[in-house]
């Protein structure tokens, strides 16, 4: 039986490029909504960002990956879509320091329903919540609604985010959510572009 990953403690160094870990939601390996976005970002920012992708169900792998990146001194951002945001929360719990955590229309998983009530991870310096509330529902929004009923809704960690971006996009539109701007004029992509230097005054 594999042991649980230990808490990663590291000081991010300027010699290490920032790392971004994207976690896809249910079915993302087929739909490639987050996978394609992460691949495009990896190719476009090669040498400037260390970009990774995992599906939502690889929780232990995500914890190990972020611990390895943190231990190597990379400033970290974790980005999750739908159930992927739930996995982001599980991975963030394995860290002592996390520069940025983004939940794109986050949904708590049924198996971690109790965790939906968990507050903000102590490691997270800043949290961004992108909410999708479309005028016209499609299949992805009905799937999200079913997930809310079984999983407990939006995890509390994202309900108390530093920045909330409300959109009228459908649940499937991850790329659109990343580009949508909040009341402060900033999008999730802007937050990613700025980390780890931007600081939020609470």
Q: How is this structure best described in words?
A:
Helices cover 34% and strands 17% of the residues. By secondary structure, the chain is an alpha/beta fold. The protein has a 6-stranded parallel beta sheet with strand order 2-1-3-4-5-6, sandwiched between helices. Helix 4 (83-92) links the parallel strand 3 and strand 4. The model is unreliable at 1-6 (pLDDT under 50).
What percentage of the residues does DSSP assign to strands (E)?
Answer: 15-25%
Structural class: alpha/beta
Spatial strand order of the main sheet:
2-1-3-4-5-6
What fraction, in percent, of the residue positions are helical? Answer: 25-40%
Large-scale geometry: globular
* Ends apart, CA distance between termini: 42 Å
The beta-strand count equals 6
Kindly provide the radius of gyration, computed on alpha-carbon positions and rounded to a whole number of angstroms. 16 Å
Quaternary state of this entry equals single chain
What order do the helices and strands follow? EHHEHEHEEHHEHH
Number of helices: 8
Low-pLDDT segments, ≥5 res: 1-6
Instruction: Give the overall pLDDT as a whole number.
Output: 88
Largest sheet: 6 strands, parallel
What are the salient characteristics of this protein?
202 residues, alpha/beta, six-stranded parallel beta sheet, 34% helix, globular, disordered N terminus
Summarize this, please?
By secondary structure, this protein is of the alpha/beta class. Helices cover 34% and strands 17% of the residues. The chain has helices at 28-31, 33-44, 59-71, 83-92, 139-151, 156-159, 174-179, 188-194, and strands at 19-24, 50-55, 76-81, 100-104, 127-132, 163-167.
């Amino acid at each position: 039986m594999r042991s649980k990953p230990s808490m990663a403690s590291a000081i991010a160094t300027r010699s290490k490029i920032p790392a971004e870990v994207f976690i896809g939601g249910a079915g993302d390996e087929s739909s490639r909504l987050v996978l394609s976005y992460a691949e495009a970002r990896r190719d476009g920012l090669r040498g400037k960002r260390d970009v990774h992708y995992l599906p939502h169900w690889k929780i232990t792998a995500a914890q190990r990956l972020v611990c390895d990146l943190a231990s190597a001194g990379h400033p970290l951002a974790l980005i999750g879509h739908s159930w992927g945001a739930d996995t982001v929360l599980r991975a963030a719990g394995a860290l002592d320091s996390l520069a940025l955590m983004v939940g794109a229309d986050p949904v708590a998983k049924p198996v971690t329903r109790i965790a939906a009530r968990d507050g903000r991870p102590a490691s997270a310096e800043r949290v961004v919540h992108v909410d999708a509330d479309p005028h016209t529902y499609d299949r992805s929004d009905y799937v999200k609604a079913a997930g809310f009923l079984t999983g407990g809704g939006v995890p509390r960690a994202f309900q108390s985010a530093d920045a909330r971006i409300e959109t009228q996009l459908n649940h499937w539109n991850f790329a659109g959510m990343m580009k949508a701007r909040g009341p402060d004029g900033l999008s999730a992509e802007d937050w990613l572009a700025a980390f780890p230097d931007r600081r939020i005054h609470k």
